[in-house]
Specification:
The complex is a heterotrimer of chains A (about 375), B (about 100) and C (about 300). Chain A has about 375 residues and is of the alpha/beta class. Chain A contains 12 helices and 16 strands. Chain A has 2 domains: about 240 residues, Thiamin diphosphate (ThDP)-binding fold, Pyr/PP domains (Rossmann fold); about 130 residues, 3-Layer(aba) Sandwich (Rossmann fold), CATH 3.40.50.920. In chain A, strand 6, helix 6 and strand 7 form a beta-alpha-beta unit. The N and C termini of chain A lie far apart (about 50 Å). Chain B has about 100 residues and is an alpha+beta fold. In chain B, strands 1-2 form a two-stranded antiparallel sheet. A two-stranded antiparallel sheet of chain B has the order 4-7. Chain C has about 300 residues and is of the alpha/beta class. Chain C has a single domain, classed as 3-Layer(aba) Sandwich (Rossmann fold), CATH 3.40.50. In chain C, helix 2 crosses helix 8 and helix 4 packs parallel to helix 6. The interface between A and C is large, with 43 and 47 residues. Strand 9 of chain A pairs parallel with strand 3 of chain C, so a sheet runs across the interface.
């Protein structure tokens, strides 16, 4: 079944399709319509779930943690300030190995108050043990949430996932989304049955005081789960394609086979970059786009393989790590061998500033011009 | 999860593979004998004891089993002295440990 | 006289459920009121219980990984999330058809009166199906005796040194909870375990947010010998510092009255944390205890069982 849906509705319908059992969320612009439609669907009985309407995002994730630990599949959604308020529990979820899925509408952090797109909110949650996906369109939002449960709940993974969608560019923009049919989705995503949970028949404590004798190994296990997730993500993305007709990987390489110049980017900028690459190719400029879907686990192999063929590459970040550079730039830089392509970091679109096709064309051309710098500001006022 | 439990009730963790994915308990604190915390030892004087079981009731551990007379489990008694203070019949003596 | 003869002459009767769910070997200090509270609570609630425990003494008492003392499932949660984590647990249990399991949020006074108050208020307003127990030792004891909003006027703590002891009243958490119109709110005291057990059993038979404020002395933080924990706890109620009452669907009942309440000075002098107080400080505390007690009596008169008749 196909519907015209905003990104927020696609996220909400994905939660429904995943048959989540407990939802807990708190409204925040521009995520709000996710909680609104889920409230409506739960009230109408279209989703057999308890929706805990909490008094803060902090409690929202805490409630999801409790529910997931008790054996329920849970969902939450937030944005920017809300995600920041959850921060303590974002860590908690990762270390508790609870495969919760959170739809985060990427929004700029205040002050000044901004409700517009910026990925700095999610980047700030980089080191929490969560997997992170950045979506280009609403179909990808829907598909990514379904796959996030499937991947995260695997016994050898047990990791939560942050599914990111850009404020307004996706959250409030309508696109055609294929919702598939319930039978195929149920077959793809069986009910959540954790091996260990809060169980009165097998009473255990979860998350007790952990000495240096053990804490280290628990951290090691999270890293190992992320490393294992790379392959599971790739396999699940392929399987998803065979079932539903759309395949996914950790990255998506667009016209990169023979590309001399590649822009690495994520979220909705990836779509714009593809248009820019098409236009430049019409003029004989061999442009390609490497869309990073998964920021965690970071797709090091894909990046090295695809950028290794390019003469120069740039990374377009709608986020910044102050005092260093764009976060995807530094990650990309960190995995490339010394002899890799020249790499430029572009900062673009912070706080929802439009990143146009012309902007991206100019970035491609800058790669050709050979002035490579860790930070190039696109469109900053002189 | 099949933890290796030693005879004394402690959990044997030798390899990373012996650990669960997150810190989930695998054994009971009963393996932690707290006798060494004690500087005084309660001694129930059978003749004075009226079997009211208040000592059993007030023990925070619990380290007193109800009985005739009640029995102090010296593996766990921390020597807090609440049973001594609460006994209405002065039937529990306080003895210094290590004497 | 041998033991068999004694048994004939002095048969014993237990006034609490016999089964011990809490195992010994836990890490509570000697004479810990919080350990007693948990032992009684588990006796009352049984094994069909799941606990959410935030940062508090009990996060340590239960024991380090890979051990636990509680005997029931425990989810160690973030400091301010006892109620919100429990909300998630109870909704999940309901959704999974496991309604017969009792979800208990078990937090200290810091995690309840202070950092966890927002989450608790949210869960109370939603009337989430849980029993919330605060074991109140009147300061942040796990971090080493820092004042909380449950610390009473006059008390020394490491952040309210004797030269600038805690000024101002203890926050009235019961009134805050009653103001949420929850089905059941009650106080209890480890000195009266039968009352505590009875209240938790009553709470278990109800649904929605049920709140229990348990008075739990801390020898380490209150500076008293561990052996007098129960005596101090009893004295707190006998001098009206900690009244025992319950509010069921808005109806107040005082469960324990003191025809001749003892002077508060008796209570204060038992604890090192009050030793710096001058006579006028003690008189002031007495006047506030009297005022609060009179207020409670008026609440019972206005909103007690007899009020409507």
């Amino acid at each position: 079944m196909k519907k015209v849906l905003t990104g927020n509705f696609a996220a909400a319908y994905a939660a429904v399709a995943a048959r989540v059992q407990v939802i807990s969320a708190y409204p925040i612009t521009p995520q709000t319509t996710i909680v609104e439609i889920l409230s409506e669907l739960v009230a109408r009985g279209e989703l057999a779930a308890d929706f805990i309407k909490v008094e803060s995002e902090h409690s929202a994730l805490a409630a999801c943690i409790g529910a997931q630990a008790a054996g329920a599949r849970t969902f939450t959604a937030t944005s920017a300030q809300g995600l920041a308020l959850m921060h303590e529990l974002i860590h908690w979820t990762g270390r508790a190995r609870l495969p919760i899925v959170l739809a985060n509408v990427n929004r700029a952090m205040a002050p000044g108050w901004s409700i517009w797109a910026d990925a700095t909110d999610a980047i700030s949650e980089r080191d929490t043990g969560w997997m992170q996906i950045y979506c280009e369109d609403n179909q990808e939002v829907f598909d990514s949430i379904l796959m996030a449960y499937r991947i995260g709940e695997r016994a050898e993974i047990l990791l939560p996932t942050l599914v990111n969608l850009d404020a307004f560019f996706l959250s409030h923009t309508s696109q055609v989304v294929d919702l598939y049919d319930a039978e195929r989705i149920d077959a793809f995503l069986p009910p959540y049955r954790p091996a260990v949970k809060l169980d009165v028949a097998d009473p255990r404590s979860f998350g007790a005081l952990t000495s240096p004798d053990y804490y280290y190994e628990f951290s090691y296990k999270i890293q190992k789960a992320h490393e294992a997730a790379r392959q599971v993500i790739a396999e699940t993305g392929k399987e998803f394609g065979s079932v539903f007709g759309r395949s996914y990987g950790l990255t998506e390489a667009y016209r990169c086979e023979d590309a001399e110049y590649v822009l690495v980017t994520y979220g909705t900028i990836a779509g714009t970059a593809k248009v820019a690459a098409d236009r430049l190719r019409e003029k004989g400029f061999r442009a390609g786009v490497l869309k990073i879907r998964y920021f965690r686990p970071f797709p090091a192999e894909d990046v090295v393989r695809i950028l290794g063929r390019a003469a120069a590459a740039g990374v377009v970040d709608r986020a910044i790590s102050y005092g260093q550079a764009g976060p995807f730039y530094t990650e990309t830089r960190s995995v490339l061998p010394g002899a890799g392509p020249a790499l430029t970091g572009f900062i673009a679109g912070l706080g929802g500033r439009d990143v146009s096709v012309a902007d991206l064309e100019s970035m491609f051309l800058q790669l050709r011009d050979g002035k490579h710098s860790p930070i190039v500001w696109i469109g900053v006022k002189p | 999860m099949k933890p290796k439990i030693r005879k004394d009730g402690t959990v044997a963790v030798e390899k990373t593979g012996d650990l669960p994915d997150m810190p989930v308990s695998m054994g009971s604190m009963k393996s932690n004998k707290t006798a060494s915390w004690r500087s005084i030892r309660p001694v129930i004087i059978e003749e004075r004891c009226k079997r009211c079981m208040i000592c059993w009731k007030v023990c925070p551990e619990p380290a007193i089993r109800p009985g005739d007379p009640p029995v102090v489990d010296l593996d766990y008694c921390k020597g807090c002295g609440i049973c001594i203070a609460e006994c209405p019949f002065d039937a529990i003596d306080s003895e210094k440990e290590g004497k | 006289m041998n033991a068999a003869e004694l048994q004939k002459k002095t048969p014993f009767r237990l006034t609490l459920p016999e089964e011990e769910i809490l195992s010994p070997g836990h890490l509570a200090c000697q004479g810990c009121g919080a350990a007693m509270a948990m032992r009684y609570a588990l006796k009352a609630l049984g094994r069909n219980t799941i606990l959410s425990i935030p940062a508090c003494c009990w996060a340590v008492i239960d024991g380090p990984f890979p051990y636990s003392a509680a005997g029931v499932p425990v989810f160690h949660c973030a400091f301010e999330t006892a109620a919100s984590t429990a909300a998630g647990i109870t909704h999940a249990l309901s959704r999974l058809g496991l309604d017969e399991i009792t979800t208990v949020a078990w937090a200290g006074d810091g995690g309840t009166f202070d950092i966890g108050l927002q989450a608790l208020s949210g869960a109370a307003e939603r009337n989430d199906n849980m029993i919330y127990v605060v074991y109140d030792n009147e300061a942040y004891m796990n971090t080493g005796i820092q004042r909380s909003s449950a610390t009473p006027h006059g008390a020394w703590t490491t952040t309210t040194p004797t030269l600038q002891f805690k000024k101002g009243p203890k926050k009235n958490i019961m009134e805050i909870m009653v103001a949420h119109s929850i089905p059941y709110a009650a106080t209890a005291n480890i000195a009266y375990p039968e009352d505590l057990v009875k209240k938790l059993q009553k709470a278990r038979s109800l649904r929605g947010m049920r709140f229990l404020h348990v008075y739990a002395p801390c020898p380490t933080g209150w500076k008293h010998a561990p052996g007098v924990t129960v005596k101090i706890a009893r004295m707190a109620t006998e001098c009206n510092v900690f009244p025992i009452y319950e509010v069921e669907e808005g109806v107040y009942s005082i469960n324990r009255r003191n025809p001749n309440p003892k002077p508060v000075a008796e209570y204060l002098k038992m604890q090192g944390r009050f030793h710096h107080l001058r006579e006028e400080d003690v008189q002031f505390i007495q006047s506030r205890v009297d005022r609060d007690w009179q207020r409670l009596i008026k609440l019972e008169q206005a909103f007690g069982k007899a009020a409507g008749t």
